[in-house]
Amino acid sequence: MVEMSLHFSQTERDLAAGGVLTIDLAALRHNYSVITQRIAPTRAAAVVKANAYGLGASRVAPAFYEAGCRDFFVAHLGEAIALKPHLNPDATIYVLNGLQPGSEAACARENLLPVLNSLEQIENWARLARTIGSKLPALLQIDTGMARLGLSAKELDRIIDEPSLLDGIDIKFVISHLASGDEPENPANAAQLATLTAALARLPKLPVAFSNSGGCFLEKTYYFDLARPGVALYGVGPAPRHDFENPIRPVLTLSARVIQVRDVDEGAAIGYGGTFIAPRPMRIATIAVGYADGWFRSLSNKGCAFFGDTRLPVVGRVSMDSITLDVTALPEDTLKLGSLVELIGPHQRLEDVARDCDTIPYEILTALGDRYARIYVDRSTADRQS
Ligand SMILES: *Cc1c(COP(=O)(O)O)cnc(C)c1O
């Protein structure tokens, strides 16, 4: 969010932004709890990488902590260091991407746990353990069919042939990651599970962390000891299925300010490149959100906003800081300078916006940017981040 000095009131802050992003901490806790109940006795971590999927890790992670979460996954060491002051010392923070050579000492000093994804990362962590003369905790990742991060089959053979490679490393969990956990019917899931099970049989008995959000909605055999849900915590539940109701609650709403309303004649060209020509006299409202706010340019002449139940189609290109809407369907003078229209909320879900952009909700969330006025609500009480 744009930094503003303290003498601005909350209302002034609100009005100084192009839109208002409201994040419901109670919904975050609810989603954590329903996942925990579903997978019990498996524990649930919270994946809070990329600033908690764009929603603000410093506010979101403590909400999960309050709901009972003690395990937090980020992608980078820098994210872990930034998050640490916002959590009690009994929380553990894990670094999914592992460590760059030379950053091992900083990670150990901060009591953060790296995921060791390669023989090189194992070697570097073991070397530091030897240097300081005590064991160092870490997670060990095994690739089971994604070819992204983790030990390959060959590398796994290597550490099984030469267990001393792991000397000095206290492995807290063996982890792996599902490539298609969100597709319950995809046979790749069972294949990954079988590969993981075979690998575990060759290693000393260790706790296992496997499932992402998708995995938490597969069968029990995918749960093991610790799950790593991310997107479901942020309100994106499993695709509709016949066997259960989606227990996940939406977490955010996004509204944008009207900055101008005008009537245009038939034939008027709207926006950059004149890609929309008014087919009849129309009323156009310009709102103060654009692609710099994560409202992708691919939504040009596509998608919509809502005012009450009225759908307001996007006409013309999405600009960096604004979008033009066809508001002809609304009675004149309904929208004025300062009115708010809904971009994400009860009429248009995050999933709908992602579909209109040919992308996934993850990309919309993490692109929201920091120009909105962010309001963190907790059922009835509201407070905000300044
Ligand atoms: C991002 C990520 C997760 C969380 O995935 P979701 O699909 O958001 O639940 C879990 N594990 C790893 C290794 C990840 O990279």
UniProtKB/TrEMBL annotation:
Modified residue N6-(pyridoxal phosphate)lysine is at which positions? Answer: 49
Q: State where substrate binds.
A: 148, 320
Domain Alanine racemase C-terminal residues, every copy: 251-377
Top class in the EC scheme: isomerase
Citing just one GO molecular function, the answer is: pyridoxal phosphate binding
Q: In which pathway does it act?
A: Amino-acid biosynthesis; D-alanine biosynthesis; D-alanine from L-alanine: step 1/1
GO terms under cellular component: cytosol
Keywords recorded for this protein, A-Z: Isomerase, Pyridoxal phosphate
Catalytic activity as recorded in UniProt:
L-alanine = D-alanine
CDD domains noted in UniProt: PLPDE_III_AR
Identify which cofactors the protein needs according to its UniProt entry: pyridoxal 5'-phosphate
Query: What are its E.C. numbers?
Result: 5.1.1.1
Residues at the catalytic site: 49 (proton acceptor), 272 (proton acceptor)
Q: Which GO BP terms sit in this record?
A: D-alanine biosynthetic process
SMART domains hit by this protein: Ala_racemase_C
Task: State the similarity comment.
Answer: Belongs to the alanine racemase family.
Sum up the protein's function in the record's words: Catalyzes the interconversion of L-alanine and D-alanine. May also act on other amino acids.
**What is the protein's name according to its record?**
Alanine racemase
The organism's taxonomy opens as: Bacteria, Pseudomonadati, Pseudomonadota, Alphaproteobacteria, Hyphomicrobiales
Protein encoded by which gene: alr
